[in-house]
Structure formats: C-alpha cells, structure tokens
Amino acid sequence: MTTRRWADSHVHLFSIEDGADPALERARAAGVDRFVCVGTDLGTSRTCVALAEADHDVAAVVGLHPHEARHLAEQREGIEALVSHPAVVGVGEAGFDLFYAHSPHADQEDAFRWQVALAHAHDRTLVIHTRDAWPDTFRVLESEGVPPRTVLHCFTGGPAEAERALALGCHLSFSGIITFRNADDLRAAAALAPLDRVLVETDAPYLAPVPHRGRANEPAHVVHVGEALAAAMGRDVDEVAAATRATTRRLLGRG
After folding, report:
1. Shortest CA distance to 35 belongs to which of 61, 2, 59?
2. Which domains does the chain have, with CATH numbers?
3. Least CB-packed of 36, 52, 72, 178 within 10 Å?
C-alpha cells in the first residue's frame, strides 16, 4: 500500500465494466482516495449522486454533456433539482464537442450557457468539455463570465490555449493523453501552468494512459497520469500528488 495519495478529478464510475465498487477498491489500494463522478445527462447524473451518497470519498458533478445537449428541454428541470444536493460539487460537463457534433451547435451553446448560469447561481464548480471548439468555448465564457471555480476537463490544448484559459481564471485538468507519445504540445502547456492550477483525471473508462493505452481505463490509473504530469512540469511526483489532490478538494470537494 502506497502512502502517496491522489485524487481522480473526473471519472464516469457508472460506465466501469465490472462496476463502480470493485474499481473504487482497486483505486484506493493504489493510493487514490478522492473521486469525482461526472454525469453526462439526467440519468447518469442521478447515478453519480447515488454513488456519492454511498461513499463519502466520491463527489458528484451533474449536468448535460455536449453530445446530449439536444435533450436540454426535457432534462433541464431534473438536473436543476440535483444541483443543490450536498454531494453535488459541480455542474457539467458542459461545453462544445464539434468533433462528433451529436447535438446541433445551437443546442450545445444553449446547454453550455445554461450550465454556466447554474454554476454561478448555485456556487458550484463549472466543469467544461471542449473538443475542436476553443474559439466558441472562450467566446461563451467571456460572454457569460467565468465562475470562480472552473475546470477545463481533459485539457487538450497547447501553450496558447493554456495561457488564455489561465488568464481567465480556469484550472487545467490533465488526462491520460499527457502520457501519449504525440502529446508534446500538451506537455508544453503543462510545463507553463502553475502547480496550484492543475488537476489530474482518468476520464475512465476512456483514455487509458500508457502503459494501459488501448484498454479500458479505471481510476487507479490516475497514478500514471500524475507521474507524467510531474515529468512534464519538472516537479517531484510527491509534490504533484499533494498539490493536485489539494486542488481537487478545493474545487470539487464535499463540504
């Protein structure tokens, strides 16, 4: 059992193949003791809340993923009812995904603006998903106002996007992509980020880091993400573990 402690700031526990409980136990044995379960629609948001009610080291983020933005009208009221639950620490993952465009652009923007407003109104952290959409993402954030606690989940930008996001007050959360051989721009972005503005995540069951790339991801693998982030930042692994865990608790911790 390691004494180094990590937090997985973004995981979809409801999608882990052999179930949330076994995955959580493996992660705890690997030194991960904080988990943020992120919903993608009303149903999965309710599941995240239920998982957080069952385990105090799990917190919930509720909202509507850009892929599901076309369902805003029928899910809006239910998600709004969840936001004030004591286990809910954030709203999202909100934003744009123009790579797949499973929902129309206008619907994605409406859902994004609504969730920014929810985060402001309920003093919750805003968790952002952005893919192939940096100009739109920054445009909406600058228009609506960046909530005091905002995380760019699975950050995939380079130094220019990192600098702009940091200037707006955002935090950058790094996933297994930072371990990929072709991710030099991402590692350069990590190198310029202040230590207190970064988090680590798995986005499990997606984006498994090296040496597990190509297989299903799980929260125990956040250790590899953290080690790669430490290398990119030129910092000690223990220092990065402690700092990212503290930042996760500050932004996405339960009261």
Report:
1. 59
2. 6-252 (3.20.20.140)
3. 72
